């Protein structure tokens, strides 16, 4: 796992942010999933099957995040597993990736049911014994949310059917489909569905392709970006590639002010680069006119002279 993936996992592993992301995607921003109702689970998905030669083949995958959640809704209580796959880049096989994780998890649940029945010596009927899964056993639903943390529009497939190309319409109903649940900055119409700083992170990523868009965003919502936690600012820098200097010891950062300082630094460096290029160009002109090196070094530095010679 790379540094960027590790940081993304750490950021979204926070129950408050994870719950906010789930509520935004699954319930339109309504507070249905509570942070305290989330419990982290093992992200390793493992399944063993028999190959054609009779030997056992093991499949093992590591999810980014997986949490068990108890949802209380309409006087009912539901247990669900919610996974998050964090993508800094577009993944053109995402439906297959998510489907594999779901399949491995369901397979693991069936395997655990079989182990439980064996331990309790509840053999059941012959079909139940052979299945390892009894008629009244149930599975815990698995929901996977693909969180895309890029500024470009997602142009990858959103379903398994899209990956097949042309499908015969008569056969299509017989081929099971699998759709991804995608959260992508460019597709969010209303950022007010977020109750935490996850909204600010995604909104900034969306605007980050254009300096003018960032300027417009910060000017329109100064109250949302003037008091951001340092972890979110670090995440913004990580996923946009924008280097915004902020003091490490500060827990709260004024991103509007930090952005202005970033812009001023860039403008200043740009002006300095422009002046240096002008001086290098002047030296090259003087050399072409036959001005001796000694006279050139009266006005310009040796480093500038050597740089001009390299470019000649």
From TrEMBL:
**Residue limits of the Transposase (putative) YhgA-like domain?**
120-228
Pfam families reported for this sequence: Transposase_31 (PF04754)
Q: Which InterPro entries match?
A: Transposase_31
Protein name (database record): Putative transposase, YhgA-like
Q: Which organism does this record belong to?
A: Roseburia faecis
Q: What is the lineage of its organism?
A: Bacteria, Bacillati, Bacillota, Clostridia, Lachnospirales
């Amino acid at each position: 796992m790379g540094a960027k993936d590790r940081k993304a996992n750490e950021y979204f592993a926070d129950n408050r942010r994870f719950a906010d992301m789930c509520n935004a995607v699954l319930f339109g921003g309504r507070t249905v999933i509570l942070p305290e109702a989330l419990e982290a689970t093992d992200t390793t998905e493992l399944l063993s099957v028999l190959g054609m030669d009779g030997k056992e083949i093991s499949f093992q995958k590591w999810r980014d995040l997986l949490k068990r959640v108890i949802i209380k809704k309409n006087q009912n209580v539901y247990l669900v597993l919610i996974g998050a796959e964090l993508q800094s880049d577009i993944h053109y096989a995402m439906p297959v990736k998510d489907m594999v994780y779901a399949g491995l998890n369901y397979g693991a649940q069936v395997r655990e049911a079989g182990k439980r029945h064996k331990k309790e010596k509840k053999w059941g009927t012959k079909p139940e014994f052979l299945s390892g899964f009894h008629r009244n056993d149930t599975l815990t639903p698995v929901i996977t949310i693909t969180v895309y943390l890029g500024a470009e529009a997602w142009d990858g497939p959103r379903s398994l059917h899209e990956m097949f190309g042309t499908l015969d319409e008569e056969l299509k109903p017989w081929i099971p489909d699998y759709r991804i649940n995608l959260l992508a900055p460019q597709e969010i119409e209303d950022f007010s569905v977020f109750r935490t700083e996850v909204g600010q992170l995604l909104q900034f990523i969306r605007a980050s392709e254009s300096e003018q868009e960032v300027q417009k965003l910060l000017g329109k919502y100064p109250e949302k970006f003037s008091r951001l936690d340092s972890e979110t600012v670090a995440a913004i820098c990580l996923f946009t590639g924008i280097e915004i200097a902020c003091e490490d010891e500060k827990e709260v950062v004024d991103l509007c002010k930090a952005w202005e300082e970033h812009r001023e630094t860039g403008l200043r460096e740009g002006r300095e680069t422009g002046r240096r290029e002008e001086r290098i160009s002047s030296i090259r002109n003087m050399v072409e006119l036959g001005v001796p090196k000694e006279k050139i070094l009266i006005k310009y530095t040796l480093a500038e002279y050597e740089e001009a010679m390299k470019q000649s």
